[in-house]
Task: structure prediction
Amino acid sequence: SDAGMIFNPVKADKTADFEMVMGKLKEALQKSDKPERKQQAASWKVFKSLEPGPSGSVLYIFVIDPAVKGADYTVSKILAEAFPTEVQEIFKAYAAAYAGGQSLVNLQLVQNLAQ
Result:
């Protein structure tokens, strides 16, 4: 798709763990030798909702705009590329932080109001 959003409900007491993993994700994307990873880093933002998420969770939203065509956005795969010996520990913290499943929304550009 042209862009995407992923909604991530995180347990309120696990936000520090989730944000630690996001720091590792950023590091992994930036230090990669793969050009598509650099492109992903340039267009991938992580937002935290000011309003509570479902069941008192904290909602983190990945906004990917533009999406890198054909790139794999699987967090565990990106982390494994950069941190092969640490990925198990990092991913445990990532998985344990979730209060529910991710929701993915693929977006198709209809109008760019800046152009």
